[in-house]
Amino acid sequence: MATIKMGFQMKKLALLAAVAFTAFNAQADSITGLYNTGIGSTTDSHYTVDGHASYITSNGSFPLDHWFANNDTSKWITISDQQGATYDPSSNGTYTWTLNFNIGSQYDASTASFSGHFGADNSAKAYLNGQEIGYTGGFGTNDFSSFLTNGGFRAGNNEFSVVVTNYAQNGGNPTGLRVEFDQSHVAAVPEAETYAMMLAGLGLLGVVARRRKAK
């Protein structure tokens, strides 16, 4: 009878361990603070360019007849309120857009990941905390390229940046950036009770395995 009771308790704890393990892996959320470009009316409050405000473009004005049209998901951003202004007439220009976001202490930064796609006039590289995660070479519908990473995140403050290169041209030479995040994921740090439940169940499973091996 004692053997039956012991077996029942072992099965119960094993079940609890399985439930705890599932809960351990299920506590996940999207990363807060990852914004597509163009949120706002005139300026984008999330992206800065070389430390200054970035400006949101509008359809119907140059260069939006060349750039992939804005929509409700994202919009192009530029370095001034004159979206069609010409820059870099004699040498390439480089512009760095920055988006800061925070992974709070309730999350495990080592589990974080995100992906998205972006375009630029003329080309750009995307970075997470200084590590390159993607490249794009154009601004048309078919030129948008992917960026993704499942590592390199830090607990607390993080920086997503895009360095845009505008090729030299004397006239008709605006520059801009467009970013859309597709998905993001970060797991919550399990509560102490979840850890204890899982460890207790795993410990008991180890005892069972050793007893079976000894028989």
Keywords:
alpha+beta; 7-stranded antiparallel beta sheet; single chain; 39% strand; 2 helices; Jelly Rolls; 215 residues; 4-stranded antiparallel beta sheet
Number-wise, the strands total 11
CATH fold-level label of the largest domain: Jelly Rolls
Individual helix count: 2
CATH superfamily of the largest domain: Galactose-binding domain-like
Helix-strand layout with pairing:
Blueprint: H1 2-26, E1 28-29, E2 43-49, E3 52-56, E4 77-78, E5 93-103, E6 107-121, E7 123-128, E8 131-136, E9 145-149, E10 156-166, E11 176-188, H2 192-214
Antiparallel strand pairs: 1-11, 2-3, 2-5, 3-4, 5-10, 6-9, 6-11, 7-8, 7-10
Helix pairs in contact: 1-2
